[in-house]
């Protein structure tokens, strides 16, 4: 018997197309909304029971059940929560449920295209119409009032009648429309439920009505698809290492154990719980791409919400549950929300505290982790000045001798030698380390930016110098008797010959007495090289800038016997002299950069020739 029918909302015709368009990309949320309502209904009744306003047995089995019937074309959500009386259906469904949609319209009318509405806008019950040709409610209030049936095809007009439901709770039945029938696939629906409700506080069961239950499974207790007590809600002191690792595996399907983690457990000034994991990178080329799953009262909202998380945090993996989040607002609103900023600041501080704490209490482990966590820490420094200030003292610099040094342990901040390619620059590294200098390894994709940042910070006190850009004092041979005039004379005598040999008439040629056995080395000033690297980056893609030809300096080692004999050879044996010049230059070049094919083949035949001469 129809005892009432009417219109749900005068604005519904206007709202519909806009919401439908937006929902198209976020279709999933209908299920999130209906199951959330079921969860709310149970929470409400639990509360009433707790204050003595409802009589519920203490061992009540609270549950939500989602069933799909592909043959009938329906999805049904049941909960044994508070239920609704006829008056409540009128009030909460016919009036209230649509006011959310109305608010939405008022806020975004005319700008729905560019409003970039966050996928978390709660449209609640109304969203069921986006995937249904018809929605039915059967509900019986905990008060014992007669059960009510409600149905609507359009979301605009409804009819109500008696229901024969005889248990407390609410059934929402959606007759799924043709263009949303993917949700009738048990697998799709189940996966969607798992995505949002893996940690729902109430047991959630999934039933595929058309699936035949095997004889041996008939007596088995059905298993909920959620874990109502996720680890992040437990007190950190009660969680074991294995539990943290297992949770990580379950949530992120990453079977490499995380390095360490931070359990966030904040009650004041806001509520926030969660676990952040520092993942182990499998190799240095592993992409730095983390996932932070954001939950709202144990219901999944979205991954990596830029507006509440510091950007660099998204390189980590973790979960955050933030019941105070103002979620049903637009993106632009979230960004301006002071509260949201506070969350971000707070998390940043916790991460910095963890890093400094580890350094102070488990330095050895911290050094071990550094190879994995350094890109994350550096990225954080680049993105967030406050983070940099907090972790500055625990930034580590790995040397070519596998030491991990802090800034204060580096010998000279004014001249921090680094290598970005330890193989190609091996000769320079050897010369420097023999002279007791430290060489730090800065070969990662982020390191160039990071070095610029550090140089810029602290009023330019820090300076990074690549190993091939200058001669360290310690590399010079202090015992040499060669005077400045001797060195200049030597350079003057051979400069033109080296330029001709190198085919570079701008090549600068100098002489120094050095400890190394190398007859000569090539230097490229740090400044000039960075300039060129920048031009390369911002200049034409694919254009080939000859690297540093113009700014190269060839430094002859006056302590080397062959170099010492050059001037004599030039007089007495010009052929041998030419050969020596070429060989000295090529050796220096080879230690500096990869040789082209032609250069390499010339170098090899000349080397063979020299060997032949030596054996005569
Ligand atoms: P909201 O959940 O934000 O209040 P909804 O549109 O999702 O908005 O739901 C509107 C109202 O309908 C709810 O506030 C609640 O009173 C009622 N309602 C919806 N689903 C249920 C349910 N399963 N059991 C009891 N009441 C419900
Ligand atoms: Mg709701």
Plain-language structure description:
- With 616 residues, the protein is an alpha+beta fold.
- The protein has three domains: 2-217, Histidine kinase-like ATPase, C-terminal domain (Heat Shock Protein 90); 231-361, 2-Layer Sandwich (Ribosomal Protein S5, domain 2), CATH 3.30.230.80; 489-521 and 547-615, Heat shock protein 90, C-terminal domain (Four Helix Bundle (Hemerythrin (Met), subunit A), Up-down Bundle), CATH 1.20.120.790.
- 39% of the residues lie in helices and 18% in strands.
- It is built from 16 helices and 21 strands.
- It has helices at 12-23, 29-50, 86-108, 186-197, 241-252, 331-336, 338-361, 363-383, 385-391, 426-434, 447-456, 484-502, 526-538, 561-572, 574-592, 597-615; strands at 2-7, 64-69, 74-79, 132-140, 148-152, 157-162, 169-176, 204-208, 260-266, 272-278, 291-296, 299-303, 317-321, 397-398, 404-405, 416-419, 439-441, 464-466, 508-512, 520-524, 552-557.
- The strands form five sheets. The protein has an eight-stranded mixed beta sheet with strand order 1-6-5-4-7-3-2-8, covered by helices on one side. A five-stranded mixed beta sheet has the order 9-10-13-11-12, with helices on both faces. A three-stranded parallel beta sheet has the order 17-16-18.
- A hairpin with a 5-residue loop joins strand 14 and strand 15 (404-405).
- Helix 15 (574-592) crosses helix 16 (597-615).
- The N and C termini lie far apart (118 Å).
- Bound molecules: adenosine-5'-diphosphate and magnesium ion.
- Adenosine-5'-diphosphate is lined by residues 33, 37-38, 40-41, 79, 81-84, 92-93, 96-97, 100, 122, 124-126, 170.
């Amino acid at each position: 018997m129809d005892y009432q029918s009417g219109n749900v909302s005068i604005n519904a015709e206007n709202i519909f197309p806009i919401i439908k368009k937006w929902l198209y990309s976020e279709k999933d949320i209908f299920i999130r909304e209906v199951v959330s309502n079921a969860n709310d209904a149970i929470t409400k009744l639990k509360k009433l029971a707790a204050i003595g306003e409802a009589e519920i047995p203490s061992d009540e089995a609270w549950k939500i059940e989602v069933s799909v019937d592909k043959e009938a074309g329906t999805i049904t959500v049941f909960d044994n929560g508070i239920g609704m009386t006829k008056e409540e259906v009128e009030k909460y469904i016919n009036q209230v449920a649509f006011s959310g949609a109305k608010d939405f319209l008022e806020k975004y009318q005319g700008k729905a295209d560019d409003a970039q509405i966050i996928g978390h806008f709660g449209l609640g019950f109304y969203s069921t119409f986006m995937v249904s040709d018809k929605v039915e409610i059967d509900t019986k209030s905990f008060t014992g009032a007669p059960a009510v049936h409600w149905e609507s095809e359009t979301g605009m007009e409804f009819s109500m009648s008696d229901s024969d439901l005889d248990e407390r709770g609410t059934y929402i039945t959606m007759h799924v429309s043709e263009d949303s029938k993917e949700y009738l696939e048990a697998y799709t629906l189940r996966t969607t439920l798992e995505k949002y409700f893996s940690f729902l506080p109430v047991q959630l069961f999934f039933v595929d009505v058309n699936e035949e239950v095997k004889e041996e499974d008939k007596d088995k207790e059905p298993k909920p698809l959620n874990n109502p007590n996720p680890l992040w809600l437990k007190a950190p002191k009660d969680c074991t290492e294995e539990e943290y690792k297992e949770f990580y595996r379950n949530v992120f399907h990453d079977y490499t154990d995380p390095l360490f983690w931070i359990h966030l457990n904040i009650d004041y000034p806001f509520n926030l719980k969660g676990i952040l994991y520092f993942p182990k990178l499998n190799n240095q080329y592993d992409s730095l791409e983390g996932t932070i799953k954001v939950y709202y009262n144990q219901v999944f909202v979205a991954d990596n919400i830029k507006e509440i998380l510091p950007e660099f945090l998204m390189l980590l993996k973790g979960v955050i549950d933030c019941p105070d989040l103002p979620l049903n607002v637009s993106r632009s609103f979230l960004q301006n929300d002071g509260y949201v900023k506070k969350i971000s600041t707070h998390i940043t501080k916790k991460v910095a505290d963890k890093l400094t704490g580890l350094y102070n209490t488990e330095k050895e482990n911290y050094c071990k982790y550094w190879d994995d966590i350094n890109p994350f820490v550096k990225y954080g420094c680049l993105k967030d000045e406050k983070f940099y200030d907090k972790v500055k003292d625990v930034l580590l610099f790995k040397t070519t001798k596998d030491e991990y040094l802090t800034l204060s342990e580096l010998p000279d901040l004014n001249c921090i030698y680094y290598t970005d390619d330890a193989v190609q620059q091996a000769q320079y590294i050897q010369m420097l380390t023999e002279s007791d200098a430290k060489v730090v390894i800065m070969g990662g994709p982020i390191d160039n930016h990071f070095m610029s940042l550090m140089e810029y910070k602290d009023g330019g006190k820090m300076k990074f110098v690549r190993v091939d850009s200058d001669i360290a004092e310690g590399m010079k041979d202090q015992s040499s008797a060669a005077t400045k005039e001797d060195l200049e004379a030597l350079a003057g005598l051979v400069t033109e010959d080296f330029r001709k040999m190198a085919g570079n008439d701008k090549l600068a040629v100098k002489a120094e007495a050095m400890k190394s056995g190398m007859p000569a080395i090539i230097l490229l000033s740090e400044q000039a090289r960075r300039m060129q690297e920048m031009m390369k980056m911002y200049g034409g893609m694919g254009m080939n800038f000859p690297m540093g030809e113009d700014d190269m300096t060839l430094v002859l080692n006056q302590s080397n016997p062959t170099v010492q004999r050059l001037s004599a050879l030039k007089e007495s044996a010009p052929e041998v002299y030419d050969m020596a010049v070429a060989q000295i230059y090529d050796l220096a070049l080879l230690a500096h950069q990869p040789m082209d094919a032609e250069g390499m083949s010339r170098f090899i035949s000349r080397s063979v020739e020299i060997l032949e001469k030596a054996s005569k």
